[in-house]
Specification:
842 residues; 4 domains; six-stranded mixed β-barrel; 24 helices; 55% helix
């Protein structure tokens, strides 16, 4: 019989004894794989739903969006020639007025063809055309429920947008293209485009965007049509979207959140891997005499390695399959709730790809953590039959196993990079995980060495017997410090990092921003209104600061004559249109970092660009940049870089141009008002009455909407971290269960030597407390360090350690280890010493 055949025979016979000793291995792998399978299944279901319903979410097969203007006659003729049907809409923010009350709303003005796909749901139920037609010669308006509640509106009430009157006809229940619109600051209103066509709300230079949805023939090549449009329409001065990604904002959010949760799941799988390794070590410790006997009978190390690899591989395969089944079933049950939370289509059918991804992660993780103890089993010699093998497996594996383990780790990282769209996030996360893993191992070994040293000090007299026994057990051979600190520390580290990030972001929003951020943004200020508005605001004693600047919006299309995204990549500055201002002299507090500002007589277009963004995009002084503004291409030379601070939520422009370059271009002004809370309401009410066309955006409301998104993200990641902690608790229980036999032996010896039950139990409790405290403190340090990196380098705000989060992390470590350890310690105390010692002698 071949060595593989013999190994399988041995493995099969040992498997007949059941899975005793492997319960933690199975449960650890099952939880880790199930968590990843569930997350990837949800991510895949949402992504496939978005892809399937891309045209409906977009409102057509393709969309061309223009800033501050409508398409020209020729541009519209081009779109009509390509499509079966065309729908025109305009989107902007405005103040909805009802009596003396005002509320910010996101207005969508639509034509009679809207919506090309899907249907609008109204209450009371009626066709959209009837609702927008209005009554008694007044155009109709459809409002989101929030506006009804905020202003106390009812059907039939009269409201205004700027100075245009509307009658409230219905409540907006369903907007077919709502998910594709992205983030908005105000609730939605729907009106007829014809009712606003000749008003100041859509005048040249005002802040609105027009979009044209195209219903295309079935055989249309979307990529080819996009390229043709870029060449033939407005020199590419528009934004293109099509049905291949009808809701890009939602898609990016789901992908990034999914990637992050997969990384949290991999952290959980790593914790499970510690449990797998501990289970295999404990099992092989019990099999030392069996392995020694097999070697005595002539079995070579390859046969023994394969025999236990077959056993553990079979059980790991069962655990992975079970995890995949659970991971596939949980999302199916959760999809109804997901649909209510996210207004996007979700494909709830099972998907093979995410399950394959989770299976690969599970296989590689189990192989990594199983290989080490299996390779160390080679060191067991036949002489172990005649020596005390109490201290278990020792030594390092041979170099081929170390190389194999390195390759498996590389394969796991490579798989994560392959399956994620953010390779940088994956690599940094794995680097952080590796550092954390290493620190926890060092902390466990350091705790062992410290306990060994303290237990030998003369200070540990008879009165401190429980403490001396606890320290001696932690510092002795075969101690469980490393496995406890690892299994619990990883889960607590993730929770600590998330808790500190959440606490710091809340602190920044609650304390820092109100001191620096403006009370209101004011937009759509006409040039002939800015002087009077400035006089009114600056004359208010409650206003501490007022800033105003002319503003246009433009799309950066080319850098040095080449496509901008080809030169600078998908930088956020290039993803859409940007706010642009002009100034003859540097604004107050402007810091020029490189180059010089233009002179007052300069007529050729010149550009001052934000220094940090310029460095990220690889821009240099002298580069030429083409910006499409209101359908006109302006090519200017970058002559200076300057510092722009966006952290205070105030006014900041990435791009400033000399005034001569924008002469004659229609534009409006934007302003920021810093005022006391008492002065805000009367000031804004007065401005709304004097200048009904302007829009005021309360910064606190915008921040609250951002906070709600952050809270959703924090809740999702906290659930992922909690799953990691549950896995760590399972591993901890397994570690305690594996050490139960040792505790019985210790308790029996100590009872024989005269120690009371209370002292023995106290020593076990102190051991658990010390290990839990060590795990909690290490998790606090590593989690806080990770949180500091995110807060400092990504969020760019000041970091402060949250004492509340820190305390809960440390207490959590102590509580979990104490409960699990004492459970098995109490069971060990109930065994009679004679029975344990007689078994040990035999």
């Amino acid at each position: 019989m071949s060595s593989a055949g013999l190994a399988w025979t041995i493995a099969r016979r040992e498997l007949r004894a059941g899975v005793r000793g492997f319960r933690i291995l199975i449960l650890s792998l099952l939880l880790g794989v199930a968590a990843i399978a569930a997350v990837t299944s949800v991510r895949d279901g949402i992504s496939k739903g978005l892809a399937r319903e891309g045209a409906t979410l977009l409102g057509g097969d393709a969309e061309m969006e223009f800033t501050y203007r409508f398409a020209s006659v020729d541009e519209r003729a081009w779109m009509e020639a390509q499509s079966l049907a065309l729908s025109e809409i305009a989107d902007f923010r405005s103040m909805l007025g009802y009596g003396a009350e005002r509320a910010l709303t996101q207005v969508k003005a639509v034509d009679s063809a809207y919506p090309l796909l899907g249907s609008v749901g109204l209450s009371p139920d009626m066709p959209l055309s009837v609702a927008l037609a209005g009554q008694d010669g007044v155009a109709g308006i459809v409002l989101d429920r929030m506006l009804f509640e905020r202003l106390g509106l009812g059907i039939g009430d009269r409201v205004t947008l700027a100075d245009v009157s509307f009658v409230v006809m219905a409540e907006l229940i369903r907007e077919p293209d709502g998910a594709g619109e992205g983030f908005t600051l105000g609730p939605r209103s729907l009106v007829s485009l014809s009712a606003l066509r000749d008003t100041g709300l859509l005048a040249p230079g005002t802040l609105f965007e027009s979009a044209y949805r195209l219903d295309l023939p079935d055989a249309t090549d979307l990529e080819a049509l996009k390229s043709q449009a870029k060449q033939e329409v407005a020199s590419g001065g528009f934004r293109w979207r099509d049905a291949r990604n009808g809701a890009p904002g939602v898609s990016r959010f789901v992908e990034r959140l999914g990637s992050f949760l997969v990384l949290v799941g991999l952290a959980g799988l790593t914790v499970g891997g510690v449990g797998v390794s501990s289970s295999v070590c404990a099992y092989l410790d019990r099999k030392i005499s069996v392995i020694a006997t097999l070697k005595t009978l002539g079995a070579d190390r390859r046969t023994i390695f394969l025999a236990y690899l077959f056993q553990i591989g079979t059980l790991s395969g069962i655990a992975i399959v079970a995890g995949l089944v659970i991971g596939a079933l949980v999302p199916a049950l959760a999809f109804p709730f997901i649909r209510t939370m996210l207004p996007v289509p979700v494909e709830a059918t099972p998907h093979i790809a995410p399950l394959v991804e989770a299976a690969i992660y599970g296989f590689l993780a189990s192989a990594i953590f199983v290989l080490w103890p299996l390779a160390r089993a080679e060191h067991i010699r036949p002489a172990a039959l005649y020596r005390d093998a109490f201290f278990g497996l020792r030594g390092w594996p041979r170099w081929p196993y170390l190389v194999a383990q390195a390759l498996l780790i590389a394969a796991l990282v490579g798989a994560a990079v392959l399956f994620s769209e953010n390779a940088g996030l994956v690599l940094w996360a794995f680097a952080g995980l590796a550092v954390t893993f290493g620190l926890l191992v060092l902390a466990g070994r350091g705790l062992t060495a410290l306990a060994r040293h303290l237990s030998r000090l003369s200070l540990m007299r008879r009165g401190a017997l429980p403490l001396r026994l606890a320290l001696g057990s932690i510092g002795g051979p075969g101690g469980e410090a490393v496995s406890v600190v690892l299994s619990l520390g990883l889960g607590l580290t993730v929770l600590s990092a998330i808790g500190q990030i959440d606490a710091n972001m809340r602190n920044a929003i609650a304390q820092d921003l109100p001191e620096r951020a403006p009370s209101y943004f004011v937009v759509d200020i006409q040039p002939d209104q800015i002087e009077g508005l400035t006089t009114r605001v600056e004359g208010d004693s409650g206003v501490s600061r007022f800033e105003a600047a002319p503003m246009l919006r433009g799309l950066i299309t080319k850098i040095n004559g080449r496509d901008a995204q080809e030169v600078a990549g998908p930088h956020w500055v290039l993803r859409g249109d940007r706010g642009i201002t002009y100034a003859a002299t540097p604004p107050e507090n402007t810091e020029i970092t490189e180059g010089t500002w233009w002179g007052p007589e300069e007529t050729s277009p010149q550009i001052s660009f934000a220094a940090e963004e310029a460095e990220e995009m690889g821009l240099e002084l002298g580069d030429e940049m083409t910006i499409n503004i209101l359908g006109r291409d302006i090519t200017g030379t970058i002559t200076s870089f300057r510092t722009v601070d966006f952290s205070g939520a105030g006014m900041g422009f990435v791009l400033t141009i000399n005034p001569a370059a924008l002469s004659g271009a229609p534009h409006t002004w934007i302003a920021t008002i810093y005022a006391t809370p008492e002065a805000e309401a009367p000031l804004i009410r007065d401005l709304a009455q004097s200048y009904p066309n302007i829009t005021t955006i309360r910064v606190r409301d915008a921040i609250d909407r951002v906070v709600s998104v952050l809270q959703s993200i924090a809740a999702a990641t906290t659930l992922g971290a909690a799953a990691t902690l549950v896995t760590g608790a399972v591993v901890l229980i397994g570690t305690a269960a594996a050490g139960e036999e040792r505790r019985r032996y210790e308790a029996a010896v100590l009872k024989t030597l005269g120690a009371s039950r209370a002292r023995i139990l106290a020593s076990f409790a102190l051991r658990a407390l010390i290990l839990g405290l060590g795990a909690g403190l290490v998790a606090l340090v590593t989690g806080a360090t990770a949180a500091w990196a995110v807060i400092h380098f990504v969020m760019e705000v000041d970091f402060s350690l949250s004492a509340g989060v820190a305390l809960w992390i440390v207490l959590g470590g102590v509580l979990v280890t104490s409960l699990t350890s004492l459970l098995f310690s109490w069971r060990a105390m109930r065994v009679r010493p004679a029975r344990v010692l007689r078994t040990a002698e035999s």
